[in-house]
Design goal:
It comes from Elysia marginata. The protein is mainly beta and about 425 residues long. The chain has helices at about 180-185, 205-215, and strands at about 1-5, 10-15, 45-55, 65-75, 75, 80-85, 100-105, 110-120, 125-135, 145-155, 165-170, 170-175, 190-195, 215-220, 225-230, 245-250, 260-265, 280-285, 290-295, 310, 325-330, 345-350, 355, 360, 375-380, 385-395, 400-410, 415-420.
Length: about 425
């Protein structure tokens, strides 16, 4: 038994176990969690967390390092847990392999983040983590699955040389709500779309509300096509109030196959006061009854930036593409009158889709496309795969002589794609 006493309130806590503490397949660290027993709350119950960790199918992606994970939920975290003995036989973390682990922990509530890493350095110790899924019992006993796209190196000699990273959940799905591929094929393309706005305390009302009232639009990508932009509630008085959820029935997205991602637009491009206020988008297919949830809570309160945000569709049993921040460097020719003050837009195209048209914006007072200037921008999009081309659009204003664009996936992306124009 362990007893703790709060020195401020003088309240005492007793922790009883009365059993052996030993290492096993589900307790590889020999750690035990004990709930606090107190009269004013129900003690936390034990929950089983089943992890599936996929190593990327890349050269040198596998590792012999000791990998650890920390699950972070609404009621606490698991602490760092070593993952040395998978439930499936064989060596863990081999190239292209998915390994399963099981952790018995006090209930963490909804798992929102995880820390994944290892503490070893040197040749052969690096690892490319593709994806982690965490299966656990929800508050009503229903099985839930949180999906964490990773797609990053944990290597002291690659990328930014970090061997410990934090990944947010791209989404959490109730397994009982999963719709089979055969049932999804019955879709007639009509969806009910719910737009949940952030509560007033999460954003600047004077900015976020005005941005939303400019209208919200949706672009849907599927395995067989693209639909949009579809306008939702544009110029409708009283729509998109803070903390409210607005419903739009019969939104026709057409026959685009299985949805793969959406892009939501809220606010006017280039408006420095545009403030992101969309917290969540929930889509229900009116025929197949498939429910898709897209979480934008991490963007709430972002002002003066990109008014277009993308999220992938999250389905259990599939590899979910991660969000990638593309670095775009624009080089203007160093010739007389080669610069422009006009707005410039770019669309990135890759083997897995496109980014949609994005405004290349900077902070107020900066002219990014001046004569001989090199300016970098960031575009966040669902992973586009291998980049193939860019489409550049100049708005009204002075002529502009573009030299080239250099694009790479992430600040430390290993490959730079150069698109030369010089006209």
């Amino acid at each position: 038994m362990i007893k703790l006493k709060d020195c401020d309130t003088l309240q005492e806590f007793s922790f009883e176990f009365n059993n052996w503490i030993s290492c096993s397949e589900v307790n590889q660290d020999g750690m035990v969690e004990l709930p606090a027993i107190r009269p004013d709350i129900v003690p936390l119950s034990e929950n089983v967390y089943k992890l599936k960790i996929t190593t990327g199918d890349l050269p040198c992606a596998e590792t012999s390092a000791e990998v650890s994970v920390m699950l972070i939920g609404e009621w606490g975290d698991s602490g760092h847990r070593c993952l040395t003995k998978p439930l499936n036989s064989g060596e863990p973390f081999r190239r292209g392999q998915t390994d399963e682990f099981e952790l018995r922990l006090l209930n963490l509530g909804r798992v929102s983040h995880l820390l994944l890493g290892h503490g070893e350095h040197g040749r052969g110790k690096g690892w490319f983590a593709a994806q982690v899924t965490v299966n656990f019992a929800g508050p009503n006993g229903d099985q839930m699955e949180a999906i964490f796209p990773c797609n990053r190196w944990l290597d002291s000699g690659v990328d930014d040389r970090k061997t410990l990273r934090e990944f947010p959940a791209m989404g959490t799905v109730a397994l009982k709500e999963v719709v089979s591929p055969e049932r999804r094929e019955t879709s007639d393309g009509k969806w009910t779309v719910h737009i949940k706005m952030a509560a007033s305390e999460k954003l600047d009302i004077s900015k976020g509300l005005d941005s939303a009232r400019q209208g919200i639009s949706l672009v849907a990508y599927g395995t067989e096509g693209i639909t949009g932009p579809v306008e939702l509630g544009k110029d409708m008085t009283g729509k998109f109030e803070p903390g409210q959820t607005e419903m739009f029935k019969g939104v026709q997205l057409g026959h685009v196959g299985d949805l793969t991602k959406i892009r939501v637009s809220s606010g006017l491009e280039g408006d420095p006061s545009a403030c992101w206020a969309v917290e969540e988008v929930l889509m229900l297919n009116e025929m197949s009854k498939e429910r898709l949830k897209f979480d934008f809570s991490g963007c709430i309160g972002q002002c003066g930036g990109d008014v277009r945000k993308e999220r992938p569709v999250v389905r259990p049993g599939t590899i979910v593409p991660p969000l990638v921040t593309y670095t775009v460097r624009v080089d203007t020719e160093d010739v007389a009158d080669g610069g422009t003050s006009a707005r410039v837009y770019v669309t990135l195209y890759g083997s897995q889709g496109d980014s949609g048209r994005r405004l290349l914006h900077t902070t107020a007072g900066i002219m990014p496309f001046g004569q001989g200037q090199k300016q970098s921008f960031s575009i966040e999009a669902v992973d586009l795969g291998d980049l193939e081309k860019v489409v550049v659009t100049k708005g009204p204003g002075d002529p502009w002589m573009l030299n080239q664009m250099v694009v790479k996936a992430g600040q430390f992306g290993p490959v730079e794609h150069t698109f030369i124009w010089s006209k």
